[in-house]
Amino acid sequence: MRIHSLTTRFLLTLLLSTALPFLAFGWYARAEMEERLEQQVVQVFLPQLAQQAADEIKAQLERIEQAVGMLRNALMKVLREGGDSLDVALEVDLTRNFDPDLVLLADGAGRVVGQRLHPRLDRETPASREQLLPQDVADKPWFEALNRGRVAGAWWGKRHLSEFLHRTPNKESYDPEDYSFALAFSVPTRTTQRGVVFALFSWIEVQQVLDQTAQFLRQDAGFASAEVFLCNAQGHYLAHTERANYVRGRLPLELAVQLPIGGDPVEHPYRTAAGEDRRAGFASVDKPPFEWWIGVHARDDELLRTSRDLSNVLLFVTAITAVILVVWSMVASRAILRPVRRLAVATESIARGDLSTRVPARGRHELADLGRAFNRMAGDLDSRTEQLRQAERQAAWAEMARQVAHEIKNPLTPMRMSAQLLARAKREGDPREPELTERLIRTVLEQTDAMARIASDFRHFAGPPARTLEVLDADDILTDAQRHFAGMAEIGNARVEFAPGAAGAQVRVDREELRRVLLNLLHNAIEACRAGDGPRDRVTMVRVTSAPTDAAVVYRVEDDGPGVSGEVQPKLFDPYFTTKSSGTGLGLAICRRILEAHGGHIALETSGPGRTVFRFELPRV
Predict the structure, then answer these.
(1) Which end of the chain is more exposed for a tag (fewer CB within 10 A), N or C?
(2) CB–CB of 448/527 below 8 Å?
(3) What pLDDT, in 10s, does the model give residues 190-240?
(4) 473 pLDDT band (50/70/90 cuts)?
């Protein structure tokens, strides 16, 4: 198997593009992917989970604030509608969007004028409950601050055992249901006094957020060692999935200093006192005045087990896939390249002219379809080749017929104009009639010679045109054109100025063909001026000049017409392109062909309103 053969290259390409990348990816996954998966699980998953729990707690606090605001508005409405004291406000429905454990209503003197206890807490006898619930709250700091108008409402107490619900509020309890947090707010009355409402809320709702997060980690994510906690700025646990941490538990010092101050959640690794490696994610509750943080942590070996197992499986699968790809590449390369090689050999045979060449085409796959298509192509090629030859001959004759028609029009035009000029002179008794008669005779003779030359070109179309080259003075071409164009210019209301300037320079040309070039350009210039927006009787100004250079003679045909638009200029010399309503569009194409046959060239030098210049060059002798 040669290294420069297509089969070898194809096999190497398959190996390099499939097997080797899979192997490289496997090693990369083993070396790098494990670390990246660890980073995603630890640095993204844990902080995001902590953030979700923090957002839920924040949403709970906001719902309580909204419900308290609705309660305050309802109380104010009751009082505005005729109540003279806060006793009337006891009729407000506290169960709608508002579910506190305890609500106390106090007047401006601190006397409790109304209270409502949640039914689930009504476990005491009426006498015992009467002893716990206060009759006066004037000595409470929250009442003093609200009654004096220093604040309209504030959170009080944070997490605590309320003296209004427990006989021994200083006891140590591991049950979240024993704890509460409070919100107090003032209610203006119709008198000068300011009423105060004090509401207690159960801590169990905060604990439920932590328990649900821990349940997800342990049951759904498979991290059995996962724990979730809520702590304050000093690192003390306010809530924990492990109830034993409810009384004196606190964060390890190395974690306490890592608590984020606002912003995005963070992740931090640490080691427990027992030597266990763990990862923790933190997020701030971000609800003033609470400085609370949610923490989620679990053991390293549980967090990273999935990523390490995945990398090992991926490496094994990659190795097996690479082996399969190597074998398949070898089989596929031979199955694909064998019919391709046969097609290449058959193509070379077709190129040598053997149209009977065929290739085997068995099966229903794409290469077999390609072989059958090749055979159909070879079968149709012979007949299509003959059809193509006929079409080319017909196209050539059609092209030549258009050119002949265009060429015949050029000698007919000066003969017709000279005849019209002679007829007008005869009608008007012009004394130049004999002179015009001689001019008409001369024009007819010269132009019939030109038509004969065109007929000769048509007859010899199969071979190169019969061209008679002679050395002429460069300015003789202008003199000859001036004589042939005299009648055409006068009848066409055109003023043509010939300014020879190449005295002494000589060119080797066919006189008839160069005359044809100049007449074409002059005819086009006059027609372009007539097609402008000016008056129809305007005299068309055309100037023809010649000038020598070191190696060539430069001829210019300049007119004062409207110019050639920018989008038309690139197509001027294309066969059959024309902007006129009549004509074949062959004039400028024929001019270019004639000049290129003489070693020269033609181009549109400049074009704009009032000045358009065509320039062509012929090499000097």
Answers:
(1) N
(2) no
(3) 655 567 888 888 899 899 999 999 999 999 888 899 999 999 888 899 999
(4) very high
Instruction: Provide the pLDDT confidence category of residue 535 given band limits of 50, 70 and 90.
Output: low
- Report the chain's C-alpha Rg in angstroms: 53
Q: Alpha-carbon distance 516 to 513, whole Å?
A: 5
Q: What six digits make up the tokens of 486?
A: 């005299």
Question: 185 has which bridge partners?
Answer: 153, 197
CA 215 – CA 226 distance, rounded (Å): 9
Structure tokens at 536: 């129809």
Q: Which amino acid is at 459?
A: R
pLDDT band at residue 507 using 50, 70 and 90 as cut-offs: very high
Q: Is 149 left (phi over 0), alpha (psi -120 to 50) or beta?
A: left
CA pair distance 452, 325, nearest whole angstrom = 78
* Residue among 246, 234, 96, 95 at smallest CA distance from 177: 246
Sheet holding 540-548, edge to edge: 494-499, 540-548, 552-559, 611-619, 601-608
Structure tokens that stand for 271 in this block: 């080691």
Length of the chain: 621
What is the rounded CA–CA span in Å between residue 164 and residue 411? 125
Closest CA to 409 of 516, 542, 494: 516
Q: Please report, for the chain, how many H helices and E strands are present, in that order.
A: 14, 17
| Residue 4 pLDDT greater than 60, yes or no | no
Largest CA distance in the chain: 152
Nearest alpha-carbon partner for 183 in 66, 47, 345, 88: 66
What phi and psi, each to the nearest 5 degrees, are found at residue 147? -70, -30
- Which H helix or E strand runs over 154? strand 153-160
User: Tokens 């190395």 identify what position?
Assistant: 254
Tokens representing residue 422 in the block: 């002679």
- Tell me the two tokens of residue 347: 């193509």
For 527-593, the three-class secondary structure string (H helix, E strand, C coil) is HHHHCCCCCCCCCEEEEEEEEECCCEEEEEEEECCCCCCCCCHHHCCCCCCCCCCCCCCCHHHHHHH
Query: pLDDT at residue 53 above 80?
Result: yes
The tokens 């100037």 sit on which residue?
A: 543
Q: Is the pLDDT of residue 460 over 60?
A: no
The reported pLDDT for the residue numbered 3 is: 47
Q: What pLDDT, on a 0 to 100 scale, did the predictor assign at position 423?
A: 85
Q: Check residue 219 and report its DSSP letter.
A: I
Least confident of 262-276, 280-294, 581-595: 581-595
Which residues are within 8 A (CB) of 607 and not within 5 positions of it... i.e. 6 or more apart? 563, 564, 569, 613
Neighbours of 227 (CB within 10 A): 20
pLDDT for res 93? 56
What beta strand segments (E) does 167-317 contain? Answer: 180-188, 194-202, 227-231, 237-240, 266-271, 277-284, 293-299
Q: Which spans in 352-461 are helix H?
A: 366-428, 433-459
Q: How far apart are CA 94 and CA 107, in angstroms?
A: 18
> Rounded CA gap, 518 and 504, in Å?
20
Both tokens assigned to 470: 């002679």
Q: What is the DSSP string of 56-98?
A: HHHHHHHHHHHHHHHHHHHHHHHHHTT-SSGGGGGGS--STT-
AA letter at 76: M
How would DSSP label each residue in 441-459?
HHHHHHHHHHHHHHHHHHH
